[in-house]
Amino acid sequence: MGFALLIEKDRPTNEGLVIGGLIMAAAFIASGLLKRKIGWVIGWITQFAMIAYGHFVFTMYFMGGLFLGLWVAAIIVGRKGEAIRAAHLEASKDKKGE
């Protein structure tokens, strides 16, 4: 978003800068709240807002889509990692209990 804002700053109106700044702030806030459900909700909204920011900076249609793909991949890999971790913890408990 920072680089998109650098492109947007040369436009005659400030509308794109304000909206881009809000999206960037939402992304920052979401990153701090990911341990709670609201962080995930803000994160999803932010991903789609970055794609919609393509209205102001055309390349954000593509970059927003790329970051949405990375967001989804991180969720999938994170869930798999948590499942593996839970299985290891369960195996450790069973070993200690024997």
Give a quick set of tags describing it.
98 residues, mainly alpha, elongated, 0% strand
Describe the structure.
This protein has helices at 2-8, 15-32, 37-52, 60-97. By secondary structure, it is an all-alpha fold. The chain has one domain (2-97). α2 runs antiparallel to α3 and α3 (37-52) packs antiparallel against α4 (60-97).
> Distance between termini?
54 Å
The average pLDDT value, as a whole number, equals 91
Task: Summarize the biggest pleated sheet.
Answer: none
> Structurally, how many domains make up the residues?
1
The percentage of residues in β strands lies in under 5%
Helical amount: over 70%
If you compute it from the alpha carbons, what radius of gyration comes out, rounded to the nearest whole angstrom? 19 Å
- Strand segment count: 0
Structural class: mainly alpha
Shape: elongated
Q: What order do the helices and strands follow? A: HHHH
Tally of alpha and pi helices: 4
Low-pLDDT runs of 5+ residues are: none
What does the secondary structure layout of this molecule look like, with pairings?
Elements: H1 2-8, H2 15-32, H3 37-52, H4 60-97
Quick rundown:
This protein is mainly alpha-helical. It has helices at 2-8, 15-32, 37-52, 60-97.
